[in-house]
Every structure is written in structure tokens, then in C-alpha cells.
């Protein structure tokens, strides 16, 4: 399980070689063997003994801010970048092969967006000229991106950013029109200026943390990116790879909104007009993401959970770096 502490005053302690979660409602003991990761939100706390127990069992600990964005982590010393992988990873990011790698990632992102539009399109919109036109426009941008070429990522950066951004705007505009009136939004925003973006930002935060932890366990340095390089001291490779998987968070949030599951008690509006998720809203996103990531899907002929597919991707990426030869 992924153990998430997101309520104010919740504490994670160590008791008789087990985790003890204490809340105002009581105490629950959890066997460390059942825990895959621990997420600690603002207002919750963890004891040093519980941290050591997590390290002993190679359990990743992630600390989140009030918006659900990862701010720090503790992991076992058995994890961490292997020097050979890191050296090859650096060589790869500066090579021409990195150009095709990031082109393929962004092209796949747009393909995923098209697939999600089809998957969640309400019956009254199916076959409409509006939907068909927008899908065609996204496909056109995907085609342009697929035909980019250059010796370095910097050569294609401006075009890639521009076309990916334009396609994403069409994508979110299309999704917005599928939603009930109360959940519609005016483009992406961070900090969130509406409930949809508050939900999506929180879901992306969960995904960021999941991907970073998976890369670390595979021996990859998450701070050496290909396309996202300018953010100093941030896990920029995560920003590259999440593009393949954002659609997972998109689906969870769109589904919650289309079911009208998010009620006013799930969020609050701050004095500056930004939207924050309350504990109930955070729990709904966490549960939705957890269930979705455990669903079995088939990728490249392998029927595994989405969590396992992330791990398989990270291991294949580590092998790609190890086998890289700059010719």
C-alpha cells in the first residue's frame, strides 16, 4: 500500500517493529511489509524511529506541501544513482539521440491526449464537428513534432515547446467542454484558480513523487534532465518523463468531475482567489490515483498494474543509459 498522511495532527510512529498511525480517532498498526511508500503532508508528522523503520524496509518517504507538491524525500542508502548510469546519463543528455528520445515522449503525450478525449467524450459530443476538428488539430501538431530534427535538444526546443503548448491548450479546452458547468475552467493554472486545476495539480504532485521515487530505485539521477534542464536543484528528468503519464492523472480528475463527486467541502477559496483542496478533496484524489495506478493494463504485451509499468519503464531507461554509446 501507499501510506498517505494528509490530515492535520496525524502522526506516524514506531511500535513493536510496526508503524503506528495515530489520529484523533485512535491508533492503527501497520506491518511495514505491506507498505510501498509513505507520503507526509503539511500538518502531519513522523518520528525518527518511524523514519528508521522505513529505511530498514527500503520504504520511500515523501514530504508534501499543502498543495500536494513534493518538497523532499528520505530513501534507503541502497537506492541512489549508480556512478556508471549517471555518467552515461550525462553523455546521453548531450547527444543527438536525446533529441529523438524527447521527440518520441512529447509525440506520445499528444497521442495519449487524443486517446483520452475519445475515452471520456460524452455521448452527446461523439462524432461532433467540434471534437473531430480538435482531435485533427492535435494530430497535426503531433505530426509536426514527430518530424522535428536537430543535433541537440536546444535546436528543437522552441518549436517543441510551442507546438506542445498549443496542442495542450486545445486538449484542455476540449476536456473543459465535456465537464458539468460547475467544474469547467479557463485553461491550466498553477496555483489553481478553479477546482479542476486544484484537483489536477494535486494529482500531478502524486505522479511526480511516484516517478521520482521509481527513478531513484532504478539507479537513475532524477536531477539530470533532457528537455527540462534549466530548473536548478529540481528533479528535471521527472518533468521529462511525466509527459508520458500525465494522462493518467487527467483521467482520474476528469472522471471525478464528470461524476460530480467533488462537493464544496472538498476545497476552499483563498483570499487571493486561489483554490486549495481540503482533507476530503485530497483523500478523494489520493484514493482515485491509488486505485487507478493499481489497475491492470497491457503495454508492450505485458499485463501489469500501472505502478509496475512505471517500474519497468525506469529499469528499461537505466539499461538504455548503461548501453549508450555516443558515436
Could you please describe the fold and organization of this structure?
This protein is of the alpha/beta class and 327 residues long. The protein is 50% helix and 15% strand. The strands form four sheets. It has a four-stranded mixed sheet, sandwiched between helices. The chain has a four-stranded mixed sheet with strand order 4-3-2-6. It has two domains: 73 residues, Ribosomal Protein L15, Chain: K, domain 2, CATH 3.100.10.20; 240 residues, CRISPR-associated endonuclease Cas1, C-terminal domain (Four Helix Bundle (Hemerythrin (Met), subunit A)). The protein has ten helices and twelve strands. The longest helix is centred in the middle third of the chain and has 26 residues.
Order of helices and strands: EEEEEEHEEHHHHHHHEEHEEH
What structural class is derived from the secondary structure elements? alpha/beta
Radius of gyration: 21 Å
Mean pLDDT, to the nearest integer, reads 93
Number of strands: 12
Please identify, by name, the CATH architecture of the largest domain: Up-down Bundle
Q: Going by CATH, what is the homologous superfamily of the largest domain?
A: CRISPR-associated endonuclease Cas1, C-terminal domain
Into which percent range does the helicity of residues fall? 40-55%
Number of domains: 2
Q: What is the spatial order of strands in the main beta sheet?
A: 1-5-7-8
- Specify the biggest β-sheet: 4 strands, mixed
Amino acid at each position: 500500500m501507499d501510506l498517505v498522511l494528509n490530515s492535520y495532527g496525524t502522526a506516524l510512529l514506531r511500535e513493536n517493529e510496526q508503524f503506528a498511525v495515530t489520529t484523533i480517532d485512535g491508533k492503527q498498526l501497520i506491518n511495514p511489509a505491506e507498505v510501498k511508500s509513505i507520503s507526509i503532508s503539511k500538518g502531519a508528522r513522523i518520528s525518527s524511529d518511524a523514519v528508521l523503520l522505513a529505511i530498514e524496509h527500503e520504504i520511500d518517504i515523501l514530504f508534501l506541501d499543502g498543495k500536494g507538491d513534493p518538497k523532499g524525500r528520505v530513501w534507503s542508502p541502497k537506492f541512489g544513482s549508480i556512478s556508471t548510469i549517471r555518467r552515461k546519463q550525462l553523455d546521453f543528455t548531450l547527444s543527438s539521440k536525446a533529441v529523438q528520445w524527447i521527440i518520441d515522449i512529447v509525440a506520445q503525450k499528444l497521442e495519449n491526449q487524443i486517446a483520452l478525449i475519445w475515452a471520456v467524450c460524452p455521448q452527446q459530443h461523439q462524432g461532433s464537428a467540434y471534437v473531430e476538428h480538435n482531435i485533427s488539430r492535435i494530430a497535426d501538431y503531433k505530426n509536426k513534432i514527430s518530424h522535428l530534427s536537430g543535433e541537440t535538444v536546444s535546436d528543437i526546443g522552441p518549436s517543441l515547446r510551442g507546438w506542445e503548448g498549443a496542442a495542450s491548450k486545445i486538449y484542455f479546452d476540449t476536456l473543459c467542454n465535456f465537464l458539468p458547468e460547475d467544474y469547467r475552467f479557463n485553461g491550466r493554472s498553477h496555483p489553481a484558480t478553479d477546482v479542476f486545476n486544484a484537483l489536477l495539480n494535486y494529482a500531478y504532485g502524486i505522479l511526480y513523487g511516484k516517478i521520482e521515487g521509481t527513478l531513484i530505485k532504478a539507479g537513475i539521477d532524477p536531477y539530470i534532465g533532457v528537455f527540462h534542464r534549466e530548473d536548478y536543484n529540481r528533479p528535471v528528468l521527472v518533468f521529462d518523463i511525466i509527459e508520458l503519464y500525465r494522462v493518467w492523472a487527467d483521467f482520474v480528475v476528469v472522471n471525478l468531475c464528470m461524476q460530480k463527486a467533488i462537493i464544496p467541502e472538498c476545497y476552499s477559496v483563498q483570499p487571493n482567489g486561489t483554490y486549495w483542496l481540503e482533507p476530503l478533496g485530497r483523500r478523494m484524489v489520493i484514493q482515485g490515483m491509488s486505485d487507478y495506478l493499481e489497475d491492470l493494463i497491457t503495454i508492450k504485451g505485458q499485463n501489469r498494474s500501472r505502478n509496475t509499468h512505471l517500474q519497468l519503464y525506469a529499469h528499461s531507461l537505466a539499461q538504455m543509459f548503461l548501453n549508450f554509446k555516443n558515436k
